Amino acid sequence: MQSKVERIFDFMRVLDKVCLVKRATLLSDGTIETDSSHSFKLAFMVMLIYPYLRHEYNYSRLLELALVHDIAEAETGDYPKAMQRAHPEIKAKKDAEELAAMQKYCAILDEPMKQKIWDLYQEYEKKQTPEAKLITALDKVDANMQANFYHDGDIRYWTEYEDGEQYYRINTEKKAVVAVLDEPIVEALENGTINLALTNMKKIGVKI
């Protein structure tokens, strides 16, 4: 029993690091968003939309994927999506580092949890199951939504990041991962987020 407790402690230390990983978006008061706050909101988004989904999904699996999907960034940190788009070599490096990180983290755990966490990570990365596809789509919706919440929509801070001008386009384009789901509630959330971005861009005089 003692060894099991020690392994749980060690894994919780990993999660502590996840709580420190800063993202490119700001919370409404200007606090930098962290991976843990993003995952928290993503899990809640699953709960909020689940009653309205057209297709069948494993609810527990959705919540587990939401919790696991970014924990590798405790090792690698977060890279803005615009940066990854502009620099494919950075994305490739990040993917390799995240794989190594997950192998390291899963080695901390005993079975069956070791395999469970690994399977969740692989499922999310491969994006082949309905659950992984839905979480991928919601991940993008949440990121764009949160980016618009700072100081009642003052999105001028987007340009402070490398390739930040791309954020204007990223936040106003429909995502293929949303379209393929055929889920009206997710499409409605995406449209609402796009409209919010366009409104905020109009406030600061940005046109695309």
Descriptive overview:
This protein has eleven helices and two strands; from the N terminus they run αββαααααααααα. It has one domain (2-204): Hypothetical protein af1432. A two-stranded antiparallel ribbon has the order 1-2. The longest helix is centred in the last third of the chain and has 21 residues, at 184-204. It has helices at residues 2-18, 35-49, 59-68, 73-76, 81-86, 88-106, 113-126, 130-147, 166-170, 176-179, 184-204; strands spanning 22-26, 32-34.
Strand and helix map with partners:
Blueprint (H helix, E strand, L loop, with lengths): L1 H17 L3 E5 L5 E3 H15 L9 H10 L4 H4 L4 H6 L1 H19 L6 H14 L3 H18 L18 H5 L5 H4 L4 H21 L4
Antiparallel strand pairs: 1-2
Helix pairs in contact: 2-3, 2-8, 3-7, 3-8, 7-8, 8-11
